[in-house]
Amino acid sequence: LYRLTMAALAAALATAVSAYNNGMGERPPMGWQTWCSVGECGEDHCFDGQIRAMADTLVLSGMKDLGYDWVVLDDCWHPTRDNATAELVPYPRFFPDGMKPVIDYVHSLGLKFGLYTSVGDRTCHGGWSPGSFGHYERDARTFAAWGVDYVKIDYCGSHDSVEGHRNMSRALNATGRPMSYMLCRGPYQQQDHWGYAPGIAQGWRATGDHHDNFASVRQQVEAVRGKASWSGPFGWAYLDMMMTGGQGCKDQCVGPESDQGHCNWTKPEHCPGMSEEEYRTEASLYVVVSSPLMVGTDIRLMTPIMKELLLNKEAIAINQDYKAVPGDAMPSCHGSSQEAWVRRLSNGDSAVALTNWGNHTASLAVCLDAIGLHRVRGTVAERQV
């Protein structure tokens, strides 16, 4: 990833999309999410002590000071519904004191908390946890009472629908508590300008699940190709969680993938599926396209590549420049089959990521005039970020 500082640019910045604004999501959110942190991606069990430990790590590692201030639970808390009230109850073996004490602890550290549900009647992880269909208002009130700040809604189970997406958005707003509403998947992904999503949510995932392999990185990034102007403040298309440093390890979990399985979260581990160069490509592209930076691996064990990429202040500043249109791909030189992902920053600088999707070492080049950087006067300063 390179940043080009120029005295003047001929090209003007475009105007970013205008999205639904409930006060949340002016900038792309940054934080940690459970998806691949204990066990392999998709195992996704989470626990009271684990969530507190991750929250502590965000603070003690300095990540919070850099902007990583979200703790988000994916399809891992495996609730049931109370027989009398139909309210959601976290799986007691994972959260023996319920969810609110955990959320209160996260808030006590100056962090924000997110939780997962589904628009249908079941969630996606095995289909044994209830979704929010038929309970949109009830679940919204529960989330607000617990102090939830972010609701990720998946598209699984029977009765998944666009109208369900809209109903949950209305229900969350009716609570009076500002909550980021993040769509995980749905028909909007195939629609122009993300369809109905910008009118009801602060974020929407652009494609399917991300896994710890390089082909998955490419799938994530291709989903936003040509769509840079479709995102902006209060409404961000997002790529799925970052795999930086490597997913958890298979031997951390034993037994069935259902809530009857057991995972040892007390010892952080990484079983990387990509090389360091591939993790650099992932991080660089997430930065340039201004995707929310949600880390899906175990941040308690910060390997050198994790520190290099996740604690990079200049890269974070590029990602968080909410006044600039997200980056997009273009030919790196006239007549070249190579491409560059380019973002014009609000101060006149440009961020450029060069990608090698092949299996062998390659020489990459960028021609300033080809990517629209016509120097009017002064000099160009280039530096690696």
Task: Give the SSE map.
Layout: E1 2-6, E2 30-33, H1 48-60, H2 63-66, E3 70-72, E4 80-81, E5 88-89, H3 100-108, E6 112-118, H4 136-146, E7 150-154, H5 162-174, E8 180-183, H6 197-200, E9 203-205, H7 214-222, E10 236-238, E11 253-254, E12 262-263, H8 276-288, E13 293-295, H9 304-310, H10 313-319, E14 328-331, E15 339-344, E16 350-354, E17 380-384
Parallel strand pairs: 2-3, 2-13, 3-6, 6-7, 7-8, 8-9, 9-10
Antiparallel strand pairs: 1-16, 1-17, 4-5, 11-12, 14-15, 15-16
Helix pairs in contact: 4-5, 7-8, 8-10
Task: State the helicity in percent bands.
Answer: 10-25%
In round numbers, the mean pLDDT is 92
Number of DSSP E strands:
17
| Class based on secondary structure composition and strand pairing | alpha/beta
Task: Note the overall shape.
Answer: globular
Oligomer kind = single chain
Strand arrangement across the biggest beta sheet: 10-9-8-7-6-3-2-13
Q: Beta-strand level of the residues, as a percent range?
A: 15-25%
* Count of helical stretches: 10
- Give the ordered list of helices and strands: EEHHEEEHEHEHEHEHEEEHEHHEEEE
* Model regions low in confidence, pLDDT < 50 over at least 5 residues: 6-18, 376-380
* Rg calculated over all Cα atoms: 21 Å
Please supply descriptive tags for the structure shown above:
about 15% strand; about 375 residues; 8-stranded parallel β-sheet; 5-stranded antiparallel β-sheet
Question: Can you offer a commentary on this structure?
Answer:
The chain has 385 residues and is α/β, with parallel strands linked by helices. The protein has 10 helices and 17 strands. It has helices spanning 48-60, 63-66, 100-108, 136-146, 162-174, 197-200, 214-222, 276-288, 304-310, 313-319; strands at residues 2-6, 30-33, 70-72, 80-81, 88-89, 112-118, 150-154, 180-183, 203-205, 236-238, 253-254, 262-263, 293-295, 328-331, 339-344, 350-354, 380-384. An 8-stranded parallel sheet has the order 10-9-8-7-6-3-2-13. A 5-stranded antiparallel sheet has the order 14-15-16-1-17, covered by helices on one side. A two-stranded antiparallel ribbon has the order 4-5. α4 packs across α5 (162-174) and α8 packs across α10. It starts with a strand and ends with a strand. The model is unreliable at 6-18 and 376-380 (pLDDT under 50).
